[in-house]
Amino acid sequence: MVIARPDVNLFHEVAKLPSEVVAIILGYLPNCMLPELLYFSPIKKIVASTILSNVHITEIFEKHEGSDVPGVGYSECDCNMFRITLENLKKGIDKWNIYPKTIKTEFTDSFEIGWDVFSKLLTKASSIYGFFVGTSNYPPEELFELLMDSNVKFESLHLMYFLTPVKLPPVATSVTLHQIKLDTYVIPGVKQLILRTKSINQERTNFTFSPDLEDLRIEAGSKMYVNLPPNLQELYISSTKTVNFRSEEMLKLKHLELQLPTIQSFEETGIRAPNLEKLVLSTCEELDCFDNLKQFQHLKHLVLNNCTYPTNLLKQKSFPMLESFQYSGTYFPNLDKMDIVTLTSPSTLKMLIVANHGFSHVFLDTLSLPATLTYLKLVNVVYNDDDGYFHLGENLQYVHIESFKLAFDRNFRIPHKVEFFLVEAFDLYFDSSDFMYHLPNSLIYLTLLAHEGGEMHLTNQRIKWPSMVDSIVLDGFNIDYRTLISLNFNESRLETIRICGGNIKKLDVDLFPVSVKDLALMDMGIQELPASFEKLENLHRLCLAKNRLKKVNSVKLPISSLRVLVLRKCDLRLISPFLVSMVEEENRDAKLKVEATGNSNINVIDVRKSLKAIKGLSLDINCVDEALNRISDNSTRFSCSSRLPDPYSEESGFSETEEVVVSDYDSDGLYNGSVFSPDEDDSDDDDDDDDDDDDDDNDDDDEIIKDEESVDNGKCW
């Protein structure tokens, strides 16, 4: 949920809802935020129940702060259980008479002291998660004796760093052991066992497990003998050393994942699982024989990461039930000897992902995509046909293709079921733009990226956008004003419009829909801006980077919705023309993050006055003076990057003949960057109101809104 702190009006309305609905809403909030809602009397009983129903008993906890960053709120918080001490939990239970349903507990000093209370909590809980770290002060035998005497059953038990071998009693259905050695791993009743023993030694470890075990995961750094129980349904083994498996035919095994860099053939594992449905092989760098995989005739999902590409494995009849194949890696056998690589796949395949392995010879006429395919992702796959065209299946719903060069013929159409369509290349060519006039009704995201050169010549006919389309990104197609009109954005429901590369000179806000929330027009040759963007009342983020906006008159912005304004490398002298709406009375509480790095001629006096006048302004620029560095060090709203880009570089788009001018100013008299500083001296500004500066000493609302996008990485997006 995107929320930075409780909203009185919001929860006043929430209180009017039925109690069961309120409980559902509270369940989506970060648990560390819930105590603040106890002050809302109509819902405090429900809040208390939500808090106490799902607790993590610990002596170490913190309350996360909400963020004002757009779209963040409490999303960085992972508090899915409420952290509380045993003492405070007892107080809460006494006050509200509510016992936890789900408990996660740690071994603490209060554990034994409060055992009578604690054992009562455990017997009343339906789900118990235990997390115990070995200490020299409390032997594990005493801990396990307490657990056995209480007759408690853990849903999950996590044990770490017990120094001596221990015998684990049957008190849990899921057990995780981290750097712990057991006397025996045959633990009755355990369904899931996770072993992590990463210390590397020469001792060979023997593992034998209970026949009750259904899910086994081992991460080890030593040689192992593993006796696999017959009833396993899931198995994960990761080791840098040799692993010897002993097993019968495993009829119930459905999911197998191996990370074994020493094996050369799957046959070495000795694993026989005729009903296997998912196989994941990761970092099996020596594995070059895949024939033994054909035993898995019920296989539905095959994943290979950082392995040799199985050139002859994916034949039409190799896996008659295979639905998805994913490959990511750089290993290709006998690459220098191969003239043609054939990408074939079973006729049942629905998902194909081949990424980051750099084929050197893939001819398009050998690319065989089954008609059943709905998800296609090909990244860094190189096609050597100079005159070849890429063709797509009609049933595709997701398309993501990245390569050096891609071309589509004049009959190309985006498949009629596609929802997500992204093609990216250094050179991207469409023989005809006709496909843009036949967009599928299912389309939601459309991204066309041509980093070096792109061709798609739109006619004067205007595009009719399907109602489902939410986002369009175009890069490298040199969009001019006529093309912008043909794109007909204003008659769409687009919420994201990002275009890089073009020459439109004068920007007309009427060419964009009211629905747009994220508008980016980068390196578009814009020289003149409209007087107002206020028509775009839903605009959340506006990016005008790499446009030469040297002379800008006052520009009104939709401050009620806008949170981020990106003006990187715009040859700006002044920031204030973009802030006229923020000084209006109705916008005095508005907040705006302005990212204006790469403007070497910025007027620092204008910057100082803008920050002083507008408390909701956060600004990021490059430093042209050491004083700015000192100011930014003491500011919560002003960030001064130390690196100043070369204004005459080709990337910046500035003229080599243009004079770089920095206005004269008194660096000692610069505003210190925080409207809440009691030490600031504003005597040099007659129009500044000193009395307002101390009103909000503890206001947390002036956090700098960080903009994740960078335009300095050589690409627009």
UniProtKB/TrEMBL annotation:
Residues 656-667, 678-711 have a biased composition (Acidic residues). Residues 641-717 are annotated as: Disordered. Coiled coil: none annotated. InterPro entries: LRR_dom_sf (IPR032675). This is F-box domain-containing protein. Gene3D superfamilies: Ribonuclease Inhibitor.
